[in-house]
């Protein structure tokens, strides 16, 4: 059976995602509530650390504010897609402001597996391409909305067909499916199919 779109998106990040948990995961799963709170605080602190003065050209994929699992998985999928379509510079996932409590707990354990960067670690002058997932409006991007004016290329991927986009874009993909993740996973699967047998080890990360 085909994996769910969200599972597929996270699996596509690399070989370590599904086959095994991170080292020490059993102990982590037994961590106390206090330990989990400490992990969440450490995550927030790392997200707030400023970047250095040197230029770091990059692409960024933005979730909407109060990130949920659909926007996170869709952003990860687009970052993976761009790592092959736009390999000249790295692509990071940025959550502009706030996350769903369940997503925060998930990231406390698994952020190191994902291409996530803190909002304040990105210098807007370094931006090349910006992707927006699971929304079509600037208002839902919080403080990151101004980044749209800094990038040379803006792509929007969404599944809310009844909304009216107000983001100036170079690429707009809106499909009437159940999730934004599905939109991006379909593109990932097309990429995997296009590269044929090489997709198993080189693109998908599975042996």
From TrEMBL:
Tell me the leader sequence span: none
Disordered: region residues: 16-55
For the keyword Membrane, the answer is no
InterPro entries the UniProt entry points to: DDH_dom, DHH_sf, tRNA_nt/polyA_polymerase
Gene3D superfamilies reported for this sequence: inorganic pyrophosphatase (n-terminal core)
Task: Kindly list the GO molecular function terms attached to this UniProt entry.
Answer: metal ion binding; nucleotide binding; nucleotidyltransferase activity; RNA binding
Which UniProt key words apply to this protein? Magnesium, Metal-binding, Nucleotide-binding, Nucleotidyltransferase, RNA-binding, Transferase, tRNA processing
Q: Which GO terms describe its biological process?
A: tRNA processing
Cofactor (UniProt): Mg(2+)
* Bias (Low complexity): 34-48
Domain called DDH: residue spans: 60-186
Superkingdom, according to UniProt? Eukaryota
The protein depicted here goes by the name DDH domain-containing protein
């Amino acid at each position: 059976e085909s994996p769910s779109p969200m599972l597929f998106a996270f699996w596509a990040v690399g070989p370590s995602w599904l086959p095994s948990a991170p080292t020490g995961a059993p102990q982590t799963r037994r961590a106390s509530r206090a330990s989990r709170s400490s992990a969440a605080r450490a995550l927030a602190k790392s997200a707030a650390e400023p970047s250095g003065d040197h230029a770091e050209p990059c692409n960024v994929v933005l979730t909407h504010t109060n990130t949920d699992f659909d926007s996170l998985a869709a952003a990860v999928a687009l970052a993976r897609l761009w790592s092959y379509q736009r390999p000249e510079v790295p692509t990071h996932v940025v959550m502009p402001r706030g996350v769903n409590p369940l997503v925060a707990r998930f990231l406390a354990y698994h952020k190191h597996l994902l291409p996530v960067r803190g909002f304040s670690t990105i210098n807007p002058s370094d931006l090349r391409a910006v992707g927006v997932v699971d929304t079509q409006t600037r208002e839902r991007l919080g403080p990151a909305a101004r980044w749209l004016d800094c990038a040379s290329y803006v792509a929007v991927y969404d599944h809310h067909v009844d909304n009216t986009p107000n983001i100036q874009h170079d690429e707009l993909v809106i499909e009437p499916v159940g999730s934004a993740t599905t939109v991006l996973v379909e593109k990932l699967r097309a990429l995997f199919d296009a590269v044929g047998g090489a997709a198993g080890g080189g693109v998908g990360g599975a042996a």
